[in-house]
Amino acid sequence: MNEEPMLFKIIAGGCIAGGFHLSLGFTLNQENNLLAEHFPNLPVTPASLTLGFLVSCISSHLALDDYRLSFSDVRFTHPIIPDLAYTCSVNFLPCMRVARFFMRGLGGETRVRGQLELKEYCKM
After folding, report:
1. Pick from 21, 23, 36, 121: CA 20 to 30 A from residue 42's CA?
2. Integer Cα distance of 109 and 10 in angstroms
């Protein structure tokens, strides 16, 4: 059984310096069939998957058991397309509840930007 190739490939390790900054490099795997299905002949990553990748990266570095992430003011200014390298940075404000994030191409152009907030999660 062949496994579907991962859509996002991390190419530079993520790290949190002092608990306030997460930075990583990534690329998209054009071999993943999802891209061909989303926009045939013009592969563009769906926004929901891009934000899901961001949540996954943050969750792998922070203990979020009692919190959920809420996005606001998210703007996709350029598409996230395969076979290009990107950087993602998340900068938490000193209160550690709010962060600004950016996804940029290696040329420095901002492709996605926004804000996220950690909100307490009520477990029943």
Report:
1. 23
2. 19
